[in-house]
Amino acid sequence: MNTQTLKVGIIGNPNVGKTYLFNRLTACEGCVGNWSGVTQTACRGKAGGDRYEVIDFPGCHALREYPQEDSANAISEVEQQIHQNKIDLWLNVLDVEHLEKQLYMTIQLLEAEQPVIIVLNRIDRLAVIQKNIDIQQLSAFLNTPVVKVSAKLGLGIRSLQTTIHDRLKAAKKDLPVTHPISYDSAIEGLLNRKSQSSGKSRWGVWQELIAADYADRPPAWKFEPSISQRRLEYKTLTDEMALTRYGFIQRWLSRIVSDQPQRREAKDKNWDDWFLHKWLGLPLFFTMMLGVFWLSMGFGQLIQGVVEPLLRLVTIDIPQQLCQYYDIPHIIEIMLTQGIGLSVVTALSFFPILYVMFLALHALEESGYMTRAAVVMDRLMRKCHLPGESLVALVLGLGCNVPGILATRHIPNHNDKVVTALMMPFMSCGARLTIFAVFSSVFFPQQAAGVLFMLYVLGISVAIMTGILARYSGLIQTQAAETYLLDLPSYQWPSMRVGLRQAYVRSRRFVTSAFTIILPVCVGLAFCNHISVQGEFLLTPGNQSILAFIGKQLSVIFAPIGLTTEHWPLVVSLVMGLLAKEVVISTLSIFYMQMSAPLQTEIPTISLLWQECSAEIFTNLNAWYAYFTPFIQIEAPSWAPYFNQQHISPQAVMGYLIFTLLYFPCVSTLHATARQVGWRWAGFSVLWSTIVAYICASGYQLLVQLPINYGQAIWLMSAAALTYGGALIIKWFASKRKNTNTATSPI
Amino acid sequence: MPENKHMHIGVAYRILSLNNMRLVQRTALYTRGIIPGKKVAIQHISPLGDPLIITIDHQTLAISREMWAGFELEEWSE
Ligand SMILES: Nc1nc2c(ncn2[C@@H]2O[C@H](COP(=O)(O)OP(=O)(O)OP(=O)(O)O)[C@@H](O)[C@H]2O)c(=O)[nH]1
Ligand SMILES: [Mg+2]
Q1: Exposure of A667 by Cβ count < 10 A (0-12 exposed, 13-18 middle, 19+ buried)?
Q2: For chain A, what is the largest distance between any 2 Cα atoms, rounded to a whole number of angstroms?
Q3: Residue-wise over A504-529: b if at least 16 C-beta within 10 A, else e?
Q4: What stretch of H or E contains A192?
Q5: Which chain A residue lies closest to B51 (C-alpha atoms)?
Q6: Does the Cβ of A59 fall within 6 Å of ligand 1?
C-alpha cells in the first residue's frame, strides 16, 4: 500500500485558469485574477477524499532548458519538481484560445517523461470564438488523455476527477512514455549516445545540450560535421529545437482545430484605443487610480465607522464592565480590555478598508485594466528604474500602506519589489491624514490645506529619494531587464460573486496573521501603561507609568525635533502610533483629557454603553459625506485648549508632524512588508524610515531656528553618518548572502 | 538605441528572422509562439512612447522598443 499521499501538480501558461481549477478540485481559495503571475508560490490542497494532494504552481510559459546565472531564482519550483520526479501526475491546463504556444510546454513535459493529463479549460468560450477542437485527434497526437472543462462554470470537473483517479491507480512507471516529436537523426543520435554514456534521462541530456549554447567555449560535439552543418541553417541548437517543435505543433493543429475568423480582438482594441490613447491614457490612469483609492477609502471608512464602535463595545467596554461587576483584579481587567480587546479592535478595524480596497483591486485585475496601467506608466517609472506596476502600488499606498504593499505582488522582479516596499512607508496614508487634520485645525487653522499639501509633497519626495538612493548606493543590485514582454489579457467583466469572496479571503488572511503581531505589542503597551516604574499597578494611565517614564526618557532624543520632557504624551503617542496610526489621536486624548478633567470613575451600565455606541455610529453615519470629501474640516477636539497651553511652539508641532509622516507606519505594514519581501528588508525599512524621519524633522527645526545651533548640527551629521554606516553594513550583508547562494545553486 | 524602421500602427508584418537578438530574448519570444513566418502588427504605442502593443496569433503583448528593434520584418502580402 502506498503510505505517501500522491501528488498532482497543476501546470500551464500564466492566466489560463489554473487556480480556478485548483479551487474547484480542492476546497481551498487560491487567489485568482485576470493577469499573468497571480499565483507566485505553489499552493497545496487535499482532494479526492484526501487520497491525493493537488499543488497549484505559478504559471510559466515554458520549462527553462538553459541554466540561468542570477542566483535569486536559479531554478523554479516546477523545474525542481520535474528534476526530482516528485509529481505523480501533472494536469497541464491549456486555454482553448492560444493552443499553439501552450502546446510547446506540453511537448516539453512529455519530453521530460512526465505523466500528464491535458485539461482543456474555458470550453465555455468555444462557442463564442467559434472554434472547434477535435479532442480525439489531440489525444492521439500527444498520446495522453485530454479532458474538457470550464473551471469557472464548473463543467467537466467530475470526468476530470475520474480520469485523475484512473491515472493515479496505475503505477507511474507503467504509464506509457511518449516522445511526440522525432528530431533530426543527427540530433537523435547525439541524444541517445549521450544518455547511454552518462546514464542521464533524455531531458537531462537536453539540458546539457542546451547549456552548451550559452557556454563561452562550445563543447567538442558541437564541431561534429553532422551537427556543425546544421548551424548554418539555425543559429543554435535552441533555435533548431524550438522551431522543430513548432513545426510539428502547427502541422497537427491544422487537423485538430477548425477556426473561424475572430472578432474578439476588435473588442479589446476598442477599449485599448481609450486606455492606451496618446493623450487620454495618462489622465485616465490617474482618474482610475485616484477613483479607486478615493471610493474605497470613503466606503471603507464608512463601514469602519459602524463596525469599530460595535467592536469596541463588545471587546472592550462590556468585558470591562463585567470585570468590574465581578470584582476581577484590575490587572487582569486591563490585560483583557486594553491588551486583548484593543488588539482585536485594531486588527479588525483594518478589515473594512482592506476589504473594500481588495474588492476594487480585484475589479481592476479581473477586468484586465491592471496590466494596461502598468504598460502606460512603464516609461515614467523606468526613469526611477522601476516598472509601471510599482506606481500602481504606490498610489494605492496613499489610501493605506497595507494594500499598497500587498499590491507589490504584481511586480515581477524581486529587487523592484524591495525598492517599492522601501518607498511605501513615505506615502502618507489615510490614518496619518487624520492626525495632520486634527493638529492643523488646532495650530494652523488658517493654513491647514497648505500644511497638508506640504506634508504630502514631502512624503512623496522622500519616497522618490529613497528609490533613487536604493539604486545608486548599490544597496540593491539592478540590471536592466533583458526582455520586456508582457501578456495583455483580454478585457472581461469582473464577477461580483468571485470578487466579494476573494476580497474576503484576502483580507481575512491578512488580518488573522497581522493579529499575531498586534496582540503581543498591544499587551506589552497595556502593561507599560498601567504599571508604574516602581512596579505598582496604576488604575488610570498617568504620569508615573512605565510608558510615561519611557516617553520622558525618549523625549531627550526627540529634543532636536522640538519636543521637551513636558511633551511626553506626544512622544508616547508616537510609540503607540507603531500599533496603528489611528491610535495616535486617541492616545493623546486619553492623556490630555486626564490632565484637563479628572476621569469619571463610576461604572456605566451596559445599556448606557450601548446608547453611547449607537450614538457614535449614528454620528459617523450622519457624517458620511466627510469620508468622501478630500479635505475634511475636522473640529478641534475638546482637549485642544489644554493642549494649547502647553507652550508648544508651532515649529515643534511641525517637527512632530513631519516625524509622524515619515517614521514607520504601523506593525500591520511591517507584517505586510515582511510577507512580501522578507523580514530582513522589513527590518531595514523600519530603521531607514525612522532615521529619515528623525533627520528630516530635526533638519526642519534647524532651518527654522537660524542661526544654526552647532550642537544639533553635530547631532544631525552623526545621525546621517550612522545611516550611511548602516546602509554599508546591510550592503555587505546582502553581498555575503548572495555569494553563499551562488555557491549552493544547483546548476 | 537601435530602432526598427517598421513602426507603422496597424500594418501587418511578416517576421523574417529573429537572429539579430540575443539568445535569451529569442527564447522568450519562442515560448510565446513568436517565430519566423508569423504575422505581427503594432496596435498601439503606449502614451509615453515605450512599450509597443503588438498582436500576434490572436494574443496581445506589450514589448519594449529595444526588443522590437531586433525583429527582421517585411510587409505582409498574402
Ligand atoms: N471564460 C472562462 N474564463 C475562465 C475560466 N477559468 C478561468 N477563467 C478566467 O481566467 C482568468 C485567470 O484565472 P486564474 O485561475 O487566476 O489563472 P492562473 O492560471 O492561476 O494564472 P496565474 O496564477 O497567473 O498563472 C480569470 O480572469 C478567470 O476569469 C473558464 O472556465 N472560462
Ligand atoms: Mg494562479
Answers
A1: buried
A2: 99
A3: eebbeebbeebbebbbebbbebbbbb
A4: helix A185-198
A5: A375
A6: yes
R_g of chain A computed on alpha carbons: 30
In the predicted structure, residue A260 carries a pLDDT above the cut 80: no
Instruction: Note whether B47 contacts A273, CB cutoff 8 Å.
Output: no
The answer to whether A376 contacts B64, with C-beta atoms less than 8 Å apart, is: no
Decide if pLDDT at B52 tops 70: yes
Q: Whose CA is nearest to atom 1 of ligand 1?
A: A122
Neighbours of B27 (CB within 10 A): 22
Number of the ligand closest to the Cα of A487: 1
pLDDT at A73: 44
Rounded to the nearest 5°, which phi and psi values hold at B71? -80, 130
Contact criterion met (CB < 8 Å) for A105 and B67: no
Domains assigned to chain A: 6-174 (3.40.50.300), 185-259 (no CATH)
Closest Cβ opposite residue A380 in set B23, B48, B55: B48
Domain assignment of residue B2, yes or no: no
ipTM of the complex: 0.92
| CB of A30 sitting under 6 A from ligand 1 | no
Q: Is the CB of A108 under 6 A from ligand 1?
A: no
Residue B51 lies in a domain: yes
Cell (9 digits) for A698: 530635526
CA of A46 to the centre of ligand 1 (A): 21
Which pLDDT tens digit goes with each residue over A582-638?
778 777 766 666 555 444 456 677 788 888 888 888 888 887 777 776 555 555 666
CA dist., res. A263 & res. A540, Å (int): 71
Q: Residue B34's domain spans which residues?
A: 12-75
Residue with cell 470585570: A323
* The pLDDT value given to residue A66: 65
> How would residue A740 be classed by pLDDT, with cut points 50, 70 and 90?
very low
Sheet arrangement for strand B59-63: A485-488, B59-63, B52-56, B39-45, B12-17, B72-75
Distance (Å, whole) CA A722 – CA A715: 11
Q: How far is the CA of A122 from the centre of ligand 1 (A)?
A: 8
Answer yes or no: is B7 within a domain. Answer: no
CA A491/CA A269 separation, integer angstroms: 10
Q: What are the angstrom distances between the C-alpha of A565 and each of A554, A559, A578, A711?
A: 9, 8, 20, 19
Give the residue from chain B lying closest to A483, CA to CA.
B25
Return the minimum-mean-pLDDT range out of A106-115, A352-361, A502-511, A627-636.
A627-636
Number of domains comprising chain B: 1
- Between the CA of A9 and the centroid of ligand 2 the distance, in Å, is 12
SS3 content of chain A, % helix, strand, coil (to 5): 65, 5, 25
Q: C-alpha grid cell for residue A464?
A: 522618490
Q: How far is A19 from chain B (nearest CA, A)?
A: 21
Tell me which amino acid residue A300 is: G
Rounded CA-CA distance A186/A194 in Å is 12
Taking any CB pair shorter than 8 Å as contact, residues of chain B touching chain A are 19, 22-33, 35-36, 43-51, 53, 55, 57-64, 66-67
CATH number, domain with residue B29: 2.30.30.90
pTM: 0.75
B61 contacts A486? CB cut-off 8 A: yes
